[in-house]
């Protein structure tokens, strides 16, 4: 062994001791570090660890179904998957966005839009980036679980409507809630939620919409679900039963066909809406996922206004149907007396201006009394009556009997129509009423406009002897509003007899509609879209064809059903274009009534039976719990203030 | 040999502490891997430990003076091996550190650590005065500097850094003068400062190293890189609380949120499942281990033995400090394992061989 080391072997004991102190100090400092993390900040890190391992996935509550009056399903749900983006980790989101956009076929723009609109939400709340995931989308998500751990799928239920827009305007449709809705909902809506946008879906959204649940699952570091902590069940929306009769609705849909117009069938005794159709109609199924901007624009710019529910929103001149109002006013006020007759040569001159009867140029009505005037719809007679009554009496009766204000139906965005009066022109146009205007109004032309629903309610109410029920679609509606306007019994008899005559007596404009064994009564109306004189200037153009009305009911008195039909710009008379639709529906009503023992027809579309487990995911289990009860709710408080004749300002849809 | 030591001369306390730490390691490796594709790793670790024990006893039989005799040769072997690794080593995780040996991949730098302990001990044992001259200090610096640069080239900042405390502790015990210490400290502070100062670190550090430094300073900005690792580690440690979540119950550990939870971040897994009380136990054992090493140094027969033991203590102490500080987010991620607890072949063998040197010194303390 070589002698390379110092023979002096004194050790530096002082410095070695210092090393010991350094060691103790070092361990002490490290322990302080652990103390801070594990004791002082433990709660903070515990919650971070929880957030790491726990992922909250919403369980979407299925919406309540809509049933018809016999319990047949009109609006149902179908299972579907939505793609969720988990946003806890902004870096991961940023990094994976292009791959996600590519894999799911979404544009980066849309993705970024989704992210920016939901910026205010808590980060742990995932957002829906693609509703209605396709099989390819599902495969993409499953195969990229580890490299794109921020995608998740949830089972949702989508609305399923009877195809082709069946009852589409009444049911309305659901859509993603708008930012406005979210703000005004007090936290009930979150971005990506679906809520009713129109129709009953919107009206009864609070009932139909359930409360979403939350599934808390454990995920590992690559986003794989490895366990389940808890499931807060979704509370499904309530099922509602409607007054709609599927059979009548179907007849109404078919009978109106594709013609633009509307059908409303009411039970005037209760105000129940038995059928409601508006044409043209989009298929609400097209809205149940997400409607593209282009499609939305197209629908809004379509000259036929398919988004308009004509049954409650078309404000059009009622034409000769209005003569029932004029006649009722005449008989009640005895101005002119009942025995009053007028001579119709096919035209008449009032206030220095010539007004034509609809038979002008073809024939004339000769001497007419009120009954013949109603049967044959003589304009000249009512011009005279209107002139004698004056606009304010007409307005008084019309308003009392339901025109010029909303009926209060349980649908959003009902239009009030317009019943003009002296007060109205003064208020709106700051001028005096021209007496000549009364001439037009007395036959349902001029400024007066009504919706099909208003006409059905008014005519039905008159036939009921002056009881005007609030129309409604919810079967178990309570506190159904009603307006009573005492019409004397003789007047009711005379008016209803006359309307019976329209269909059942020689010369009536609805003679072709006669139904054996049924007291079908009614009144036709053929409303000019433009005046006779204007028409002569523009020539015959499809665009300015007449609107055809027919409001029919049965039986003659205390009717069970009243049907108002509008066929727009058909170029035909009310009795010809609209009458048959009324007849078909009323016939179907009686057919069903006589064969009542027969089982109701089944709805011709397959609805998904969640009970059979056809729907995957949690939504299925939850739907099992759908409560059979259809919740009762009061109708919108819209008992119209009819006492005061203050018609609203003219609406845009007034055509003249 | 004239001084054949008996079994009673072994440091049984030291062995007991070692065994205890290893047991904690094996338990936590089992907990961290049993449910995953890495299941069975704890048994591999046990195998390494047994080999380690055997090597430790073997090395303790060989007189350390003989080993110190051959320090220049060992140094040469170490340098050649490091160059060989750079020339033809295997690349894993972006660094050239491994060469195949007996069917396993070995990190040459682990062996070099051992050699540097020996070389440093030999160098300082030869210093003839109680005060370390500047000349000797620079010499020692150059001796350590060469392998350090070679290891940095791999690149392996962590292992390279381990060489520093060996030099510093050796120099300190060899009589480092306070003014030299002050200068070295100043240089050290400047060096560390430049690492954290981007305009300079840009030229000094590899991108991944800069990233680690950045993420150490701003862990939130790098949520999935090494900042993510540190954050997840802190979450694991913090959520463990005082009592811990229990064996096999750490969600951060079991669900894989802790990075390399069976190796570099095993302390994080341990702290999550065993809580502060478990940390107290583990760090207490490490402290006992280190103090026991110092005690052995104090009782060494000669300065050479003391330098050997303190070189080992410096290396182990540095490992513990840097690894544990990393786990609690107090130091950047450097890839330094926790001695005896972290899973690893070369690292475990290095530690047992190092302890073998300590035993060696211990066994010969009374012999003159």
Keywords:
heterodimer; A: 656 residues; alpha+beta; Beta-lactamase; elongated; disordered C terminus; B: mainly alpha; three-stranded antiparallel beta sheet; globular
Q: Quick one: biggest sheet of chain B?
A: 3 strands, antiparallel
Give the largest chain-chain interface (CB within 8 Å).
A-B, 48 and 61 residues
**Helix/strand-derived class of chain A?**
alpha+beta
Write the CATH architecture name of the largest domain in chain A: 3-Layer(aba) Sandwich
Low confidence ranges of chain B = none
Tell me the fraction of residues in β-strands of chain B, as a range. Answer: under 5%
Radius of gyration of chain B: 20 Å
Strands of chain A, count: 21
Which structural class matches the secondary elements of chain B? mainly alpha
- Count the helices of chain B. How many? 15
* Count of strand segments of chain B: 3
Proportion of residues in extended strands of chain A: 15-25%
Describe the structure.
The complex is a heterodimer of chains A (656) and B (368). Chain A is of the alpha+beta class and 656 residues long. Chain A has 2 domains: 54-241, Penicillin-binding protein 2a (Domain 2); 246-283 and 307-594, DD-peptidase/beta-lactamase superfamily (Beta-lactamase), CATH 3.40.710. Chain A has 24 helices and 21 strands. In chain A, the strands form 7 sheets. In chain A, strands 2, 3, 4, 5 and 10 form a 5-stranded mixed sheet that branches. In chain A, strands 12-11-21-20-19 form a 5-stranded antiparallel sheet, with helices on both faces. In chain A, helix 15 (379-389) packs across helix 18. Chain A is elongated and about 150 Å long. Chain A starts with 12 loop residues before the first helix and ends in a 33-residue tail after the last helix. The model of chain A is unreliable at 605-634 and 637-656 (pLDDT under 50). Chain B is 69% helix and 4% strand. A 3-stranded antiparallel sheet of chain B has the order 1-2-3. In chain B, helix 5 runs antiparallel to helix 6 (134-152), helix 5 packs parallel to helix 15 and helix 11 packs across helix 13 (266-298). The mean pLDDT of chain B is 85. In chain B, strand 1 and strand 2 (95-101) form a beta hairpin. The radius of gyration of chain B is 20 Å and the shape is globular. The longest helix of chain B is centred in the C-terminal third of the chain and has 33 residues, at 266-298. Chain B has one domain. The interface between A and B is large, with 48 and 61 residues.
């Amino acid at each position: 062994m070589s002698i390379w080391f110092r023979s002096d072997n004194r050790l530096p004991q002082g410095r070695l001791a210092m090393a010991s102190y350094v060691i103790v100090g070092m361990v002490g400092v490290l322990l302080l570090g652990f103390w801070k993390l594990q004791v002082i900040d433990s709660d903070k890190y515990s919650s971070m660890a929880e957030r790491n391992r726990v992922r909250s996935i919403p369980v979407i509550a299925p919406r309540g179904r809509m049933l018809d009056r016999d319990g047949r399903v009109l609006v149902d749900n179908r299972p579907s998957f939505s793609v969720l983006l988990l946003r806890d980790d902004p870096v991961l989101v940023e990094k994976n966005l292009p791959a996600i956009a590519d894999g799911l076929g979404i544009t980066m723009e849309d993705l970024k839009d989704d992210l920016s609109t939901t910026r205010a939400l808590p980060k742990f709340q995932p957002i829906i980036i693609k509703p209605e995931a396709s099989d390819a989308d599902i495969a993409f998500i499953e195969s990229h679980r580890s490299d794109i751990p921020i995608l998740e799928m949830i089972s949702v239920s989508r609305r399923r409507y009877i195809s082709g827009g069946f009852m589409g305007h009444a049911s309305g449709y659901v859509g993603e809630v708008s930012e406005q809705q979210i703000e005004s909902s007090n936290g009930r809506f979150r971005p990506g939620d679906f809520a009713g946008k129109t129709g009953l879906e919107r009206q009864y959204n609070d009932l139909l919409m359930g409360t979403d649940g939350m599934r808390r699952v454990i995920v590992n570091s690559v986003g794989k679900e490895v366990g389940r902590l808890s499931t807060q069940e979704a509370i499904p929306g309530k099922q509602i039963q409607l007054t709609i009769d599927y059979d009548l609705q179907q007849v109404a849909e078919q009978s109106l066909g594709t013609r633009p117009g509307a059908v409303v069938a009411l039970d005037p005794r209760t105000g129940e809406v038995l059928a409601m159709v508006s044409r043209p109609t989009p298929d609400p199924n097209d809205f149940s996922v997400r409607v593209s901007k282009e499609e939305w624009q197209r629908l809004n710019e379509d000259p036929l206004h398919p988004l308009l529910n004509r049954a409650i929103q078309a404000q059009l001149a009622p034409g000769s149907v209005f003569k029932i109002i004029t006649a009722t006013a005449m008989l009640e006020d005895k101005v002119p007396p009942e025995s009053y007759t007028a001579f119709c040569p096919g035209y008449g001159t009032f206030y220095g201006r010539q007004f034509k009867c609809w038979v002008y140029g073809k024939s004339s009505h000769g001497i007419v009394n009120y009954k013949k005037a109603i049967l044959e719809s003589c304009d000249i007679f009512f011009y005279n009556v209107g002139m004698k009554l004056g606009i304010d009496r007409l307005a008084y009766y019309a308003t009392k009997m339901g025109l010029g204000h909303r009926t209060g139906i349980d649908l959003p965005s009902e239009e009030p129509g317009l019943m003009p009066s002296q007060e109205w022109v003064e208020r709106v146009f700051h001028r005096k009423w021209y007496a000549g205007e009364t001439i037009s109004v007395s036959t349902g032309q001029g400024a007066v406009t009504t919706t099909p629903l208003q006409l059905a309610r008014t005519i039905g109410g008159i036939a009921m002897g002056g009881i005007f029920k609030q129309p409604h679609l919810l079967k178990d509606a309570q506190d159904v509003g009603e307006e009573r306007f005492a019409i004397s019994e003789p007047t009711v008899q005379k008016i209803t007899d006359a309307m019976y005559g329209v269909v059942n007596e020689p010369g009536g404009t609805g003679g072709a509609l006669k139904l054996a064994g049924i007291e079908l009564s009614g009144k036709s109306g053929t409303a000019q879209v433009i005046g006779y004189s204007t028409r002569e200037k523009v020539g015959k153009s499809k665009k300015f064809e007449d609107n055809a009305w027919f409001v029919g009911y049965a039986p003659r008195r205390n009717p069970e059903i009243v049907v108002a039909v509008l066929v727009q710009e058909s170029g035909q008379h009310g009795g010809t274009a609209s009458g048959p639709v009324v007849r078909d529906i009323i016939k179907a009503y009686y057919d069903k009534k006589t064969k009542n023992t027969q089982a109701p027809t089944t709805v011709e579309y397959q609805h998904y039976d969640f009970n059979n487990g056809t729907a995957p995911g949690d939504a299925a289990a939850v739907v099992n719990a759908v409560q059979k009860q259809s919740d009762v709710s009061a109708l919108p408080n819209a008992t119209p203030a009819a006492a005061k004749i203050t018609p609203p300002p003219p609406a845009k849809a007034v055509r003249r | 040999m004239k001084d054949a030591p008996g079994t009673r001369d072994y440091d049984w306390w030291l062995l007991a502490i070692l065994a205890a730490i290893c047991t904690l390691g094996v338990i936590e490796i089992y907990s961290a891997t049993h449910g995953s594709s890495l299941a069975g790793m704890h048994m591999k670790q046990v195998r390494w430990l047994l080999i380690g024990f055997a090597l430790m006893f073997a090395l303790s039989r060989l007189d350390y003076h003989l080993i110190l005799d051959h320090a220049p040769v060992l140094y040469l072997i170490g340098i050649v091996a490091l160059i060989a690794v750079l020339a033809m080593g295997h690349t894993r995780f972006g660094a050239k550190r491994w060469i195949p040996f007996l069917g396993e991949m070995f990190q040459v730098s682990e062996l070099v650590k051992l050699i540097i302990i020996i070389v440093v001990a030999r160098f300082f044992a030869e210093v003839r005065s109680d005060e370390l001259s500047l000349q000797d200090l620079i010499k020692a610096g150059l001796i350590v500097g060469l392998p350090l640069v070679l290891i940095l080239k791999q690149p392996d900042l962590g292992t390279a850094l381990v060489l520093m405390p060996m030099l510093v502790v050796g120099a300190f015990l060899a009589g480092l003068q306070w003014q030299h210490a002050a200068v070295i400290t100043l240089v050290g502070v400047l060096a560390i400062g430049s690492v954290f100062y981007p305009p300079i670190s840009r030229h000094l550090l590899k991108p991944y190293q800069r990233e680690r430094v950045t993420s150490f300073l701003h862990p939130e900005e790098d949520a999935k890189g090494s900042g993510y690792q540190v954050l997840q580690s802190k979450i694991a440690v913090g959520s463990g609380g005082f009592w811990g979540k229990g064996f096999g119950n750490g969600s951060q550990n079991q669900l894989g949120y802790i990075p390399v939870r069976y190796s570099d971040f095993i302390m994080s897994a341990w702290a999550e499942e065993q809580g502060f009380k478990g940390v107290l136990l583990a760090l207490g054992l490490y402290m006992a281990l280190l103090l026991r090493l110092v005690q052995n140094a104090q009782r060494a027969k000669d300065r050479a033995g003391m330098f050997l033991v303190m070189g080992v203590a410096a290396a182990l102490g540095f490992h513990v400090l840097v690894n544990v500080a990393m786990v609690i987010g107090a130091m950047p991620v450097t890839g330094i394992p926790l001695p005896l607890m972290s899973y690893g072949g070369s690292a475990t063998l290095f530690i047992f061989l190092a302890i073998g040197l300590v035993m060696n010194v211990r066994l010969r303390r009374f012999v003159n």
